[in-house]
Amino acid sequence: MNSVPAGLLLEGVVCVFLVATIGYCWLLNKRLQALRSGQDGLRDLIRDLNKATGQAANAINELKAANAEAGAALNGRLRDARELADELALMVNSGNSIADRLGRSIEQRHAAAPAPKPAAGPRQQAPQQAPRQQAAPQRRDGAQAAAPAPQRVQRQPHPLVDAVRGKR
User: Fold this and answer.
1) What is the C-alpha separation between 168 and 158, in angstroms, rounded?
2) Is 117 helix (H, G, I), strand (E, B) or coil?
């Protein structure tokens, strides 16, 4: 048999292992390059995320400042509105008090003054007719029932009093 020296056979086996090791190292190098490129992409992504986070923090601070300004302006306007509402309430109360006094004064003058006599000349309003008193109804026994009480004639209120009462 052809015998191959043992040293040469051992070197052949070592060569095969070396080729396998070189192939495995080449494959490992490709995977490490892919991982490094992924890390570079991840670094870029993290850098962009940090930048966006900083911008968001700045925007939040700006919104807080704008909110503080708007709140201060709104509080000022609210204070002014409350002052105006208080003044308006005071004016309304004063107006109601004056209207009440005027109404009482006018009613007192109408009660104290005699009814005005119609002026000679053309009439502008139709005269009001006093309600007619009905005859007392007769009872079944033939006697007359008591006449109803006369109705009180109401005065027409003054237009100023009506206007003041209408505004309330």
Assistant:
1) 16
2) coil
Specify the amino acid at residue 150: P
SS3 (DSSP) at 102: helix
Residue 101: per-residue pLDDT = 93
The CA distance from 92 to 46, in Å, is 67
Integer Cα distance of 32 and 36 in angstroms: 6
Per-residue buried b or exposed e for 51-64, using 16+ beta carbons within 10 Å of the residue's own CB: eeeeeeeeeeeeee
DSSP, collapsed to helix, strand or coil, labels residue 144 as strand
d(CA 157, CA 36): 101
Q: What count of other Cβ atoms lies within 10 Å of the Cβ of residue 93?
A: 10
Give the predicted TM-score (pTM) of the model: 0.39
User: What is residue 87's three-state secondary structure?
Assistant: helix
Query: What pLDDT, in 10s, does the model give residues 6-32?
Result: 888 999 999 999 999 999 999 999 999
Burial 105-136 (b: 16+ CB within 10 A, else e): eeeeeeeeeeeeeeeeeeeeeeeeeeeeeeee
Between CA 142 and CA 76 the distance in angstroms is 85
DSSP, collapsed to helix, strand or coil, labels residue 142 as coil
The identity of residue 27, as a single letter, is L
Rounded Cα–Cα distance for residues 53 and 47 (Å): 10
